[in-house]
């Protein structure tokens, strides 16, 4: 089931004009910021399908930038997100693409700062609901509706068990988990949806586990 | 996680069997799936209702969008109702004006509640605040109106689509109009089956509706489509309450909507490449609003 709550249908409360192109876009930006772990200094925003055709008219552009500034869908500051981004030291660029993606409302954000760079692809599936479909080249499916942890790690035996043990030690229950890898023995990604928001200190502990290269979280 | 219904047939059967309103089943399902209490869920919907009320009030005072393409029509319709000369009836036109008011606020980047989307946010509140004057519901009944709408929207979203880019305007304003019809029927005292008939009759008449926004904006024809969605919902609700039934069952109508959306050209699904957006005037308006320049940050 793609939609699990009545408030996906009657809601969200949001700044107009489009739930998929404005509210969904803001959420993609905000989840991308969460995954990056802080506000990036620059971002290139690639837009596909309907996003590429209509992003200016729907405020998709200001909404994504607003999300990167941590604004929620009903934050009035979305309207002045471009000016606020400049003040906050976030530079941005929009690149409408002609290639087709699986879903017509897709955006890929390549963001970074002096320390690191990250790419996040999100799709807006309607009514303000989104899914994250790719992180750093890894295909995945993440709704952003549940708190989640993303762990990039070397593809070695025991990595998954070590992370699960660490979560168990902190009494964190796993709701859903997916593991994917680009090639056997190289880099892999764990996507773990959990029942409660994750404390920064748990993230830190996981990052100390051998063969773990990066840990990100989405709180809800 | 306990899913009480996945389609309209299950929804109606369960409502009949347990002697409950459709709104009650939606509330119970939300409690089961979210693990939250009834009080919390009712309070959240109460807040959504307040946002809807404020948007209608604001729109009825008159707003203009940034582009100037839409705004002020809700006021014109209210003034016309006041002359006492309306042909289609005051309640129907009141719903139409309140749907328009909401979408004019949306186009002006005001605060609205997506129902089920922002582009279709006017239909459900438009009809709700119009029938309010006739049926005098309690606040709880008004909140229940939104849960009944939500139950039908939930089925559509999971079995078809509520996105214009995926399914055309039939999936947005079409779904919204069906949702409103079902909720009106429940509020007016109809049976769960009559709610389903109201939904089916409405959506059947919205099938094939393309998403062709001029200049890619949620303005033309979106605002007026919400007006007609509200009118369609009220008439279909009256038909269902009169005992009229749909020969094609509700779930099959939703299935038809999904397949029509799949078959629809991408040019007619929110790309602004076809339909009204591609008319000479539509293109001229787009050029006037956006020129040739590409907006971009530093």
What does this structure look like?
- The complex is a heterodimer of chains A (220) and B (298).
- With 220 residues, chain A is of the alpha+beta class.
- In chain A, 28% of the residues lie in helices and 35% in strands.
- Chain A has six helices and eleven strands.
- In chain A, strands 3-2-4-5-6-7 form a six-stranded mixed β-sheet. A four-stranded antiparallel β-sheet of chain A has the order 9-10-8-11, with helices on both faces.
- In chain A, helix 3 packs parallel to helix 4.
- Chain A is globular, with a radius of gyration of 17 Å.
- Chain A starts with 12 loop residues before the first strand and ends with a strand.
- The model of chain A has no long low-confidence stretch (mean pLDDT 92).
- Chain B is mainly alpha-helical.
- In chain B, 64% of the residues lie in helices and 1% in strands.
- The C terminus of chain B is likely disordered.
- Strand 1 of chain A pairs antiparallel with strand 1 of chain B.
Overall geometric form of chain A = globular
Taking the sheet with the most strands of chain A, its summary is: 6 strands, mixed
The biggest beta sheet of chain B reads:
none
Number of helices of chain B: 13
Could you give a short description of this structure?
Chain A is of the alpha+beta class and 220 residues long. Chain A is 28% helix and 35% strand. In chain B, α9 runs parallel beside α11.
